[in-house]
Specification:
By secondary structure, the chain is of the alpha/beta class. It has helices spanning 14-31, 43-46, 51-54, 62-69, 128-137, 150-158, 169-174, 212-219, 224-240, 314-331; strands at residues 5-11, 34-40, 75-79, 91-95, 104-108, 122-124, 142-144, 164-168, 184-188, 202-207, 248-255, 258-266, 273-283, 286-297. The chain is 30% helix and 27% strand. Helix 9 (224-240) packs parallel to helix 10 (314-331). Residues 6-209 form the Porphobilinogen deaminase N-terminal domain.
């Protein structure tokens, strides 16, 4: 490691560098050391094919992780929703800062809500989850596969090429300036439109044998409530064994000692979906169900009670809750809706 300077690896996009810059500033404050950005090009940045064809969101992480393992940088910043659930040997997610807005937004020219857009309106998104959710919200709409940076996506709406695009609220908030301009934003509530596991959160990754002072500085950036929530979300995804491009959503929120997890698996186009909404209480050394659980198929039907789980700490307990949610989704038939990696 260069004396006095920490090298932070990041994708080259404006959004990636903006969010990495925010982490760099915070790390400088807690470490007293200068942090410089090291731009790295990933396959996901150069290959314009659909993400589902080139390996899903994980294509954004591989080149960065390779650079870290080669010693070309000292740490990385990822959008957590882009990371596969398995962390490679030798690496560790050393910090998950407090999460930003986890919602999706629909961006249009005139502010017409998705459910009111006329038949045949074109909606830009390459996400299988978002495609399925668009068809649930308004079956008359037509989705168009979309890649590229935020500015290029917004420009396709402004030019009239598309009627709307679906984006992550957190990404828009992290960009400098006013990327929206005269366009209009509809926030999509998490109750009816849950988002990808980890959406809105950042992951700061380094090597498992990183210097103790770096690990300590990164630990100061970690937000426990966010880590607990995203651990549960990612455990749902891992338990479904279907990869980052699965048509599924999972969102968890910690309120006091109560962890609420909402997870839905979608059929690609016909509006069919299977979901669970469960609240459990985290206590030191154990996780106990509080009797608030709901299971549904296509929005109907109820289950009884949440499974209890035991964990040595809140993170382990959150992981077990997420795994239990995935197991129950599979029991309800979610496997029939999922591609498998």
């Amino acid at each position: 490691m260069t004396a006095g300077v920490l090298r932070l690896g990041t994708r080259r996009s404006a959004l990636a560098q903006a969010q990495s810059g925010q982490v760099a500033h915070a790390l400088e404050q807690v470490s007293g050391r200068r942090v410089e950005l090291v731009p790295i090009t990933s396959e996901g940045d150069t290959n314009r094919a659909s993400l589902s064809e080139i390996g899903g969101q994980g294509v954004f992480a591989t080149a960065l992780r390779d650079a870290l393992l080669r010693g070309e940088c000292d740490l990385l910043v990822h959008s957590l929703k882009d990371l596969p659930t398995t962390v490679p040997d030798g690496l560790v997610i050393a910090a998950i800062p407090a999460r930003a807005d986890a919602r999706d937004v629909a961006v249009t020219r005139d502010g017409t809500p998705l459910h009111e857009l006329k038949a045949g309106s074109t909606i830009g998104t390459g996400s299988p989850r978002r495609i399925a959710q668009v068809h649930v919200r308004n079956p008359r709409l037509r989705t168009v596969d979309l890649r590229g940076n935020v500015d290029s996506r917004l420009q396709r709406v402004a030019s009239g090429e598309l009627d709307a695009v679906i984006l992550a609220a957190a990404g828009l908030s992290r960009l400098e300036g006013d990327p929206i301009g005269a366009l209009k934003v509809e926030s999509l509530g998490l109750a009816e439109w849950p988002t990808a596991p980890g959406q809105g959160a950042l992951a700061v990754e380094t090597t498992a044998d990183a210097p103790a002072d770096l690990l300590a500085a990164l630990a100061a950036l970690d937000d426990e409530a966010t880590r607990i929530a995203v651990t549960a979300e990612r455990a749902v995804l891992a338990g479904l064994d279907s990869g980052c491009q699965a048509p599924m959503a999972a969102h968890a929120e910690l309120s006091g000692a109560d962890l609420r997890v909402r997870a839905v698996v979608y059929a690609p186009h016909d509006g069919w979906r299977i979901g669970i909404d469960v609240t459990e209480t985290l206590r030191p050394g154990s996780v106990e169900a509080e009797g608030s659980a709901e299971e549904y198929i296509q929005g109907n039907g109820r289950g009884n009670g949440a499974d209890s789980a035991d964990g040595a700490d809140p993170i382990a307990a959150a992981r077990e809750i997420g795994s239990s949610v995935a197991h129950r989704l599979l029991e309800r038939g979610a496997a029939d809706l999922l591609p498998h990696s």
